[in-house]
Write a structure and sequence with these properties.
There is one protein chain. The chain is α+β, with helices and mostly antiparallel strands. Helix content is 34%, strand content 16%. The chain folds into 2 domains: 2-77, Ubiquitin-like (UB roll) (Roll); 86-149, DNA polymerase, domain 1, CATH 1.10.150.120. The longest helix has 14 residues, at 103-116. The radius of gyration is 15 Å and the shape is globular. The chain binds FE2/S2 (inorganic) cluster (2 copies). One FE2/S2 (inorganic) cluster binds at residues 38-41, 43-48, 58, 60.
Length: 154
């Protein structure tokens, strides 16, 4: 068993694993951070997206070992029900989630986009979130919410 040390949502955490190839996603969920979802497990749907050192990252393809010593932000680290992150607030206001399975990954990707480009165009948002799949067809609302979160429209 190896203990991996990561900074998760601003807090130093230790995650024990006997498998050096264990995905970060499993490690996060094993310590109760269940907002990050397992979708495809193949890097193709974006449901497992988190920020690793501020970069959007598929946690199903990234190992805990590779994340040792790095900073990880999950949906839980962005805001709370009482004080949501502006992107979370916009998703609520625009009533984006249907089943909600893709929502965590969508929000993480949107936060990463706005950190790079505070005033994105709709095309920027489409390009940035094209790897985040939604089987419920919420994409139009997602674009509206990200535009609103960036202070454009909404
Ligand atoms: S679960 Fe990681 S990309 Fe689909
Ligand atoms: S809201 Fe259901 S998959 Fe996106």
């Amino acid at each position: 068993m190896t203990t991996y040390r990561l900074r998760i949502n601003g807090v130093e955490r230790a995650i024990d694993s006997s498998d050096p190839d264990q995905p970060l996603l499993y490690g996060l969920r094993s310590v109760g951070l269940t907002a990050t979802k397992f979708g495809c497990g193949l890097g193709q749907c974006g449901a497992c997206s988190v920020l690793v050192d501020r970069r959007p990252t598929r946690s199903c393809l990234t190992t805990i070992a590779d994340t040792q010593g790095k900073s990880v932000v999950t949906l839980e680290g962005l805001g709370s029900m009482a004080a949501p992150h502006p992107v979370q607030a916009a998703f609520i206001k625009e009533q984006v989630p249907q089943c909600g399975y893709c929502t965590s990954g969508m929000i993480i990707s949107a936060v990463a986009l706005l950190a790079e480009k505070p005033k994105p165009t709709e095309d920027d948002i489409r390009a940035s979130l094209e790897g985040n799949l939604c089987r419920c067809g919420t994409h139009v609302r997602v674009i509206r919410a990200v535009m609103a979160a960036s202070g454009q429209g909404g």
